[in-house]
Amino acid sequence: MMERNDHKGTVGFVGLGTMGREMALNLLKAGYAVRAYDVRKEAVDPLFSHGAAGAESLADAVRDADIVISMLPDTPQVEEIVYGEGGLLASPPRGRLFVDMSTISPVAVRRMHADLKAADIAFLDAPVSGGPVGAKNASLSIMVGGERDAFLRAEPVFRAMGTTITHVGEAGAGQTVKLCNQLVCAINIQAICEALALGRASGVDLGQLRNVLLGGSAASWMLERLGPAMIAGDDSAGFRIDLMLKDLRLVQEQALSLSVPLPASALVTSQYVEARAHGEGTNGNQALFRVYDRMTNQTVA
Ligand code: NAD
């Protein structure tokens, strides 16, 4: 196994799934040493030939890291990295800097930020937008909450993974901006499903419909990236329905706690609940169109 030169520093990377794997590969390309840890051992394998070192345990990934990065499904997994056996509080990283890039609860972020700060460990919440393609191309949009000096320390690492890197405020602010991003994405996906459902029922060619919309004021990232799969009935996962539902739950929790009515977000959340109830949870977000199959008794095939 080839080990990287440690001249740029060592990143302890936790969570090598759809996004984390590509982000860690870009860190290796940029010259960072990476110690990778995932509960699924096989998730780390594709990184070895690119020079990553595998960690046997969480403590092993964290201990000698100048910076620890996590890319995990939800809040409880990130809390495990902080509070669990071999985690950051039990086994502080050499560089005393932790960056979580998952999408998780802003409330939990503020709690972890306070507990880590008391242990002299800086913590940034730095969720991302751009999907697996953005992760692969190092073109993610990264929205960062936390102290400015910690942001400045982490900025070169962010530059290896993304292009739009913005310090948006105090701890939790990165997650708030990400939740705003997610509600726009989900409502946009629903709008596309509605246009395709109406077009399909009217006998319009859906490929042409998409092309026309892409050339005008209805164009969007979602229409461009998810439209072809929706039309082809290809539900394979990039960003899973159950991950978006997790994000929409966080949107609703924050909105209710602040007494902000978000009627469109509430509606699309119900559509995602319906999709998951019909077994679409592990499918990609384009499978929201299956809800419209059921409502209209029509399919793409
Ligand atoms: P994923 O499920 O593909 O990857 C998560 C990885 O974490 C898995 O490999 C899993 O084995 C590992 N893991 C789970 N618990 C662990 C633990 N306790 N310790 C170590 N490893 C553990 O998810 P993903 O699609 O890569 O998404 C990760 C995060 O990024 C989520 O919060 C998601 O909402 C967010 N996100 C995803 C996308 C996307 O398009 N997939 C885009 C932007 C943001």
Keywords:
N-(1-d-carboxylethyl)-l-norvaline Dehydrogenase, domain 2; binds nicotinamide-adenine-dinucleotide; 13% strand; 301 residues; 2 domains; 6-stranded parallel sheet; 3-stranded mixed sheet; alpha/beta; Rossmann fold
Summarize the structure.
With 301 residues, the protein is α/β, with parallel strands linked by helices. The chain has helices at 18-29, 45-48, 58-62, 75-83, 106-118, 131-136, 148-159, 173-201, 206-214, 221-232, 241-257, 263-277, 289-296, and strands at residues 10-14, 33-37, 53-54, 67-70, 97-100, 122-125, 128-129, 140-145, 162-169.
Q: Whole-number radius of gyration?
A: 20 Å
Q: What is the CATH architecture assignment of the largest domain?
A: 3-Layer(aba) Sandwich
Low-confidence stretches: none
Shape: globular
**CATH first level of the largest domain: which class?**
Alpha Beta
Full CATH superfamily name of the largest domain: NAD(P)-binding Rossmann-like Domain
Give the number of DSSP strands.
Answer: 9
Biggest sheet, in brief? Answer: 6 strands, parallel
Placed side by side, the strands forming the largest sheet appear as: 3-2-1-4-5-6
Mean pLDDT, as a whole number? 96
Please work out how many helical segments DSSP would assign: 13
